Request: fold
Amino acid sequence: MVESVRLVDPRKVDRNPENPRLIFRQDELDALAESIKRQGILVPLTLYEDRKKYKILEGERRWRCAIKLGLSAIPAILVDKPDRMTNLMMMFAIHHRRNEWDPLPTAQKLKVLEELYEKGYAKKPTERELAELSSLRIGEVRRLKKLLGLPEEYRELLLDELEKPRSEQRLTVDQVLEATVAAQALRKRGVLSEQEESTLRMALVEKFRSGVTENTVAPRLISKIARAVERGDVNLKSARNAALRLARDDNYSIEAAFRDTAADKDREHAIEMLAQRLLEKVNEARKDSLPLGPGVIVIFRKLRAALSGLS
Reply:
């Protein structure tokens, strides 16, 4: 049962242990504290009582600022104590509305939510069920679960980075994930060993941190090299040499590795795929006796002229 707004001593309040938000940047807290100092807390916290203390469902930043400012009372709405799974679901619902949490701590709490569901229902939730429980999109659930698959050293590295002010951060979760997928692609095609995969991944991460690589999706060019090896368009030795140079040469860029190995073949492959799809569509039109409009005819004439220039 929800009660009306009341004043609560912030010293009798504790943070919610299920809150996926672990990172509270000092510069952001300072700005909020200054606002509260001028205007007070305009939006009440949402609390529940637990063992003669109050736990926070919503408003931890406001509570932290109240403690810092030495406030004797804060406005709060009190609700019934939820069970642990409901508590987590409410936390995620708040995240969905405000989108303030960092990915890695969120992923860790998503795993707890998954385990609680499995314990309560004797089966693992599907991705769709987990998305509904956490108020997240299925794509975001998949991304967060990939984060949990990262080696511990990378998770610690990301947590250390998250502790910094946003303006000082040089590494993002997506950059580490992109580096991971790229290195895995080469290992799966036999270009690198498992140890070499690990070395390359760390080298790619360092290129992001140093600024050699600025484009978050640049490692996808490495995956293109791997696919070119699989097709037989690029020989394994050439791909391996480029990958090892990426790992040992701090200034050798991903774009340079792509140019040195697969750029031409990748462009040729893309044109071949487009031409094949175009041919299939034209044959479908001929089979169904569909007339082609003047715009299509003009494009075909331009295409024929371009092709004659290649021959």
The chain has four domains: 5-81, 85-152, 170-261, 266-310.
